[in-house]
Design goal:
alpha+beta; N-terminal domain of MutM-like DNA repair proteins; Helicase, Ruva Protein, domain 3; 4-stranded antiparallel β-sheet; DNA-binding
DNA sequence: GAGCCATGGAGAA
DNA sequence: TCTCCCTGGCTCC
């Protein structure tokens, strides 16, 4: 679930549910007790995502909540049905499982589970953390040149660079595989061999795909001509639901050329690609700036 | 119902 | 490179 689009969507959902309201915080699981106590009873000001990080600000509290969902974390935002909900109303808002942080207001509540990180950061700590991240395609303040400068001089594979949050913030394993396919790029090509025009195209495509992901809350990457209806094929059905070209389609025929999709574990993560649409690159001359 | 695996990343070794 | 986090959707029985 959590690539960058998920966190940006959650920021929007949290704002819609809580911004401007007095909130109550608790940690039923017990691992965020001190932090929850610090913000308890405060007005929620704003939630904001940067890459896969989510920050939540409260009035009158210098620190912000920093959340990282990791691989298995989730943040469920609910609205109280009219007349049934209320702060502390455990009948309407039961605690199920290990709830790290519960945020409540008169009209909504949210439960955080399984997150890698849930902590309070001072403004200085937050600034230092964000400064370590690469540009986020979903943010208006993103500077794609910063990522290009890292990629352009790197001997690391483009597949690994796209997943490096210090190079690019918010891209995960699905967008990585799909963007490489859509641009017919060899995942194992070193970053320094990527051409500037290719990077510009990749960045622009990520901006569009990820914005779509925020809007629809899922990852869809296939072009209209490769959608199930257009090809007369069954729609994909699995836990993320979106239509994709190669991600988790090992041994299945490529939607474009029918060559079986390949997979390989690279740096501990599964990489998927089409060996025909994304052939081994023959580039040998470094491309500069 | 049990077991497996996953869109991530920190920290240990 | 391995372990942990300890959720949740899927497959298999």
């Amino acid at each position: 679930m959590p690539e960058g689009h998920t966190l940006h969507r959650l920021a929007l959902d949290l704002d819609a549910a809580f911004a401007g309201d007095t909130t109550w915080s608790s940690s039923p699981q017990g691992r965020f007790v001190d932090g929850a106590a610090r913000i308890n009873g405060r007005l929620m000001e704003k939630a904001e995502a940067y890459g896969k990080q989510l920050f939540v600000a409260f009035a009158g509290v210098e620190e912000q909540v920093r959340i990282h969902l990791g691989l298995i974390g989730g943040l469920a935002v609910h609205e109280s049905p009219p007349g049934t909900g209320g702060v502390g109303d455990l009948g309407a808002r039961p605690v199920v499982g290990q709830v790290r942080w519960r945020l409540e207001s008169a009209r909504s509540w949210a439960d955080l589970r399984g997150a890698t990180v849930c902590t309070l950061l001072t403004p200085e700590e937050q600034a230092a953390y964000v400064a370590r991240l690469g540009p986020d395609p979903l943010r208006d303040d993103a500077d794609p040149d910063r990522a290009w400068r890292r990629i352009n001089r790197s001997r690391v594979s483009i597949a690994a660079l796209l997943m490096d949050q210090a190079v690019l913030a918010g891209v995960g394993n699905v967008y990585r595989a799909e963007i490489l396919f859509r641009h017919q790029l060899d995942p194992f090509m070193e970053g320094r061999f990527l051409r500037r025009a290719e990077w510009d195209a990749v960045w622009g495509d990520l901006v569009g795909l990820m914005a779509y992901g925020v809007l629809h809350n899922r990852i869809d990457t296939v072009r209209p001509e490769h959608e199930p209806e257009a090809m007369g094929r069954p729609a994909r059905k699995d836990d993320h639901g979106g239509e994709v070209y190669v991600y988790r389609r090992t041994h299945q025929p490529c939607l474009v050329c029918e060559t079986p999709v390949r997979t390989e574990v690279v740096a501990g993560r599964n990489l998927f690609w089409c060996p025909r649409c994304q052939p081994r690159s023959r580039r040998r001359t470094p491309v500069r700036g």
